[in-house]
Amino acid sequence: MVVGETHRESRRRDRGPDTDGAAADPRALDRTERKQLDVVRRFGTVGSLMLAIGSLGAGAAPVFNPVVHLPVLGLLTRMPTVSLTLAFLGMWLLTLAWLALGRLATPGRVRIVSIPQLARTLMMWITPLVFVVPMFSRDVYSYLAQSEIAARGLDPYKLGPAAALSDNDPLTVGVPTIWRDTPSPYGPLFLTVGKWISRLTHEHVVSGIVLHRVLALLGLALIVWALPRLARRFGVNPASALWLGAANPLVLFHLVVGVHNEALAIGLMLVGFELALKRMPKATPEGPFPPWQPGELRWYAIGATVITLGAAVKIPAALALGFLGVMIARRRGGKLRQLFAVAGGLGVIFLGVLTAVSLGSGLGYGWVNTLNTANSIKSWMAPTTSLGFGAGGIGLLLGLGNHVDAAIGVARVIGTVLGPLIAAKLLWDAFRWKVRPLVGLGVALGAVLLFGATVQPWYLLWAALPLAVAAADTRVRTLATILCAVLAVVGPAPTGYNFDGHVFVLTQANSAALIVVIASFVLARKYIPKARPPAADEVTTGTP
């Protein structure tokens, strides 16, 4: 939101017609920029279509793939390099289209893309991806297997798919080998919903994938609902927030295509934060603090409940309660006694809701013991694991023996301590109002997950989405943009496998895709929006 623009004026402009309204509204895109927007939309839509077609042969398809015997479509399953090339082409086109769109959504721009324009763009890009084979990860098959375990009345927090369902079960066969003997690391709310899906689909893998994708799209809808509202509240242009958040290629690739349950967890977390602040008046953090508004405490409780439901899907969402508590404590006077009182109240809500969900689901508190399930793998993207490999490798070179596992263990212990310490420091800084609470939340989530035992590209969304609605600092947004763009194209292979011994296949496919992308970029370069510096009278400001 620009300086001097009221909430009502911002919403009126966002609802305005997608026509040449430059004369009526100087902040609307002019004719040339709308033409550029149209080209960017088409560029990204072609990328989505390429990704959808490539997924037929390069996706993380079920072992019993129904596409194999279909005319024409089944041909792609027998041409893996061609399918991979199409998938990589789609990834590059979508990522470049997102970066180009960002030039029309830069905070402080004289003329900026509106929310309806962004919403139509997002719909064009997402629609082809709704129908694709899962890609980049096979986690959705773990969701199906673990949900079926719960549906059969067994304990998914004690039994892995192989032990509970048997090795030959269609649901177990789709689960990566490394996860077949491990219990579920997901919260009781997610497995309860998954149990309902299993009862509806009766172990039919494709139907189960479809319903889990619907669940991921529901989470994305929650994110889209919350992003512009939180952005207005924190003084960031809502269109810029939607661009960095919902249109982000990591969201498209890993939440929509990859069907990850982060969509639901992050969606509930952001919606809960917005609901909690529904009646909180805007005031300077130093005071004076206005009188309490009717229903204010009730909305705090509702918001905290929704955030806790997000934590019942994936536990990192619980960190949002700390930063919400900081805002409420400052609202009540900003003293330590208010901070402890608010922390106690939110703690009661958190434990009460989690207990209700855990016991109501029939699964109990077994999920507490499985939160570290991911520690069983060694992710090269995790700094602690990479540091352990490096230290162990140096030991081998010096003739000290093979101590790689020990070095990784030590590095992970350091990360386990360092991440929460950074989060605690950010909580204190937010309480003293040295950092905005949602900015602190984004950085804290990033630190906790970055220093964890396992890091995946989609984990960055825990940090990027809160930063999208509260970070007005250009450097922070630029860094987030670069990280998202890089991880979008260098993350896991579309098939969900690592291609050990066949890396040349990925190299060949990516090289062919890049040749086409470069040629397309050269042909469309005159329609790419130009980067423009912010105007002096359009600088965004932040309000608590």
From TrEMBL:
Main localization, broad class: membrane
Highest rank taxon of the organism: Bacteria
Subcellular location field: Membrane
Transmembrane segments: 43-64, 84-106, 118-137, 205-227, 299-327, 339-368, 380-400, 407-428, 440-464, 476-497, 503-524
Family matches, as InterPro entries: MptA/B-like
One cellular-component annotation, GO: membrane
Positions with biased composition (Basic and acidic residues): 1-18
Keywords: Glycosyltransferase, Membrane, Transferase, Transmembrane, Transmembrane helix
Region (Disordered): 1-28
A Pfam family matched in the record: MptA_B_family
Membrane topology reported for the UniProt record: Multi-pass membrane protein
Molecular functions per Gene Ontology: glycosyltransferase activity
Entries under NCBIfam families matching the protein: MptB
Protein family (similarity comment): Belongs to the MptA/B family.
Designated name of the protein: Alpha-1,6-mannosyltransferase
Phylogenetic lineage: Bacteria, Bacillati, Actinomycetota, Actinomycetes, Pseudonocardiales
